[in-house]
Specification:
The strands form three sheets. Strands 4-3-8-7-6-5 form a six-stranded mixed beta sheet. Strands 10-9-14-13-12-11 form a six-stranded mixed beta sheet. It has a two-stranded parallel sheet with strand order 1-2. It starts with a helix and ends in a 5-residue tail after the last helix. It is of the alpha+beta class. The protein is built from 17 helices and 14 strands. It folds into three domains: 226 residues, Prion-inhibition and propagation, HeLo domain (Four Helix Bundle (Hemerythrin (Met), subunit A)); 126 residues, Roll (Nuclear Transport Factor 2, Chain: A); 125 residues, Nuclear Transport Factor 2, Chain: A (Roll). 47% of the residues lie in helices and 23% in strands. Pfam families: HeLo, SnoaL. It comes from Fusarium avenaceum. This is Prion-inhibition and propagation HeLo domain-containing protein. InterPro entries: Cyclase_SnoaL-like, HeLo_dom, HeLo_sf, NTF2-like_dom_sf.
Length: 509
């Protein structure tokens, strides 16, 4: 087997090396000790193999004459070959570890291996799909007889996979493939995948490992979900609320709690309700609201985004707290609410706790000029996803003129596009690997507005939001509402859950 890796790495042309490198993925088997994690690790290997084969197909590696002979005259091709050799060597090192394990294992240490029959049903379908793609892109049958060997340790397998993806990242940097070709190939990869469970599994496995595949799968998942939702809506439309009815119900929920009409409020809430992801009995939810009102808290609906298809509303609420006859202060809260059969069933909330602690006398209301509807036929869902992708890709300088008006008001502070970008870059600089993930999206084409719940992940490396970096990773959220005009955002209300961020960095709140 060692001779095989030597032959693979010593291939003269990059095309030969590429095809032999693809073969290396087929040598590996995983031990029975992987248990329930077998499917996940196998699919991560499959995604790596698919991504490598996609790169080869995108540059036409098996047909372009540049890649079929001696590459020494082309320094860029030589750099790419070095990356492929690194991948082969990583497999070779893993093989040596496998031999050592078998030679030193005791009777108590099983060397049994998993087979395709051990894959879960959905995983098996995806595994076979990825394998067919790679075979088609190799454009030949392997001339090397497979000599299978196994990896027995999950942590070591994870390290091997991480290293392979690191080399793939470098390969695509030193010899980038045409983006259009990559996009077409990815679309082809998932063109026949119409099962939501399969799409979700691809999305989860590809997350942070194959960003192009992850994005394409996420987009198709949303497309199919939308079609399924539309079908359900058609069947149950008589049970759904109109835009006006949804707004009326939310206004009634707010007014009844302000006025202490708890019996009426009960009729507007499902018996069981999700509050920030946790299930609550209706009685618990109302008891909490009653306690807040008795403590001097009232609410006023300021502005909203309505999605009748999802039966959802995002709303900005101005909260007023009265501590005494002479002390009164305001702050904003942004909620995302979903309704089933006309009653509140799911509620996610974020409030501006910094403003609350500061006890500011008043909170800025949304301008009456912004209450005017700006209907649009633009696909705001796709536009917003592209906007978030530009942030994650750090291509804001090149792309933000596509998404933003020359001046954007962020929490009532006017910013040029450059200043708005700088606001985002400040957090990216402070939090290494900061990633924006859309968890919930509410789109209102009739008003020209979008609202989202975003999840942020990363590792802080310097002080930000009054919290010093500790070396720990963080996970926190933002609720944000956008106003669009002629397809470009110009007004943003935002609340970032800074308390959760600070608590993860051991800051006392």
């Amino acid at each position: 087997m060692t001779e095989v890796f030597g032959a693979v790495a010593g291939a003269i042309s990059i095309a030969a090396l590429f095809n032999n490198c693809i073969d290396c993925f087929d040598y590996i088997q995983l031990a029975k000790s992987f248990g329930e994690d077998f499917s996940r690790y196998q699919l991560r290997l499959d995604v790596a193999k698919c991504r490598l084969s996609r790169w080869g197909a995108a540059i036409d590696i098996n047909n372009d004459s540049r890649f079929l002979g001696d590459a020494s005259a082309d320094p860029t091709v030589e750099l790419a070959m070095n990356m492929l050799r690194e991948i082969v060597e990583r497999f070779g090192a893993a093989h040596r570890v496998s031999l050592w394990y078998k030679a030193t294992s005791t009777e108590q240490q099983s060397t049994a291996i998993c087979t395709e029959a051990d894959l879960e049903t959905v995983s098996q379908r995806l595994h076979n799909r990825f394998r067919r793609l790679a075979i088609q892109r190799q454009n030949r049958v392997s001339l090397i007889k497979k000599a299978y060997w196994a990896i027995y340790d999950k942590r070591y397998m994870g390290k091997v996979i991480d290293d392979i993806f690191d080399f793939l990242n470098e390969l695509e940097k030193v010899f980038p493939a045409p983006p259009q070709a990559i996009t077409q190939l990815v679309e082809m990869e998932i063109s026949e995948v119409n099962d939501q469970q399969e799409l979700k599994m691809i999305q989860d496995v590809a997350k942070d490992l194959d960003l192009v595949l992850e994005a394409a799968t996420k987009s198709k998942f949303r497309e199919i979900t939308g079609k399924n939702t539309a079908h359900i809506l058609f069947l149950t439309m008589n049970a759904l609320l109109s835009r006006t009815e949804l707004i009326t119900v939310l206004e009634k929920i707010i007014s009844t709690q302000n006025e202490g009409e708890w019996t009426i409020l009960e009729s507007l809430v499902q018996p069981n309700i999700l509050i920030d992801g946790d299930s609550q009995q209706r009685s618990e939810f109302i008891a909490d609201l009653r306690s807040r009102v008795q403590s001097g808290s009232t609410s006023k609906l300021d502005s909203y985004v309505v999605d009748t298809n999802a039966q959802a509303i995002a709303a900005r609420i101005i909260k007023t707290e009265t501590a005494s006859s002479t002390e009164r202060f305001e702050y904003q809260e942004i909620i995302l609410a979903w309704f089933v059969d006309g009653r509140l069933s799911n509620l996610k909330t974020l409030r501006d706790n910094d403003a609350r602690r500061a006890k500011q006398a008043s909170e800025t209301a949304t301008s009456s000029l912004l209450q005017e509807a700006k209907p649009t036929s633009i696909d705001l869902d796709a536009l917003y996803c592209a906007y978030i992708k530009s942030i994650n890709d750090q291509t804001m300088e090149a792309n933000f003129e596509t998404f933003c008006k020359p001046v954007v008001s962020h929490n009532a502070v006017e910013k040029t596009i450059a200043q708005y970008i700088a606001l985002i870059q400040e957090s990216q600089s402070a939090i290494q690997g900061l990633h924006f993930e859309i968890q919930d999206l509410i789109v209102d084409n009739d008003l020209g507005r979008v609202a989202a719940r975003l999840e942020f992940t990363g590792a802080p490396v310097k002080r930000w939001a009054d919290a010093d970096a500790t070396g720990d990773s963080v996970r926190f959220h933002e609720h944000v509402m956008y106003w669009f005009d002629e397809g470009k955002m110009h007004w943003v209300w935002s609340i970032v859950d800074l308390d959760t961020y600070r608590k993860q960095l051991l800051v006392d709140i």
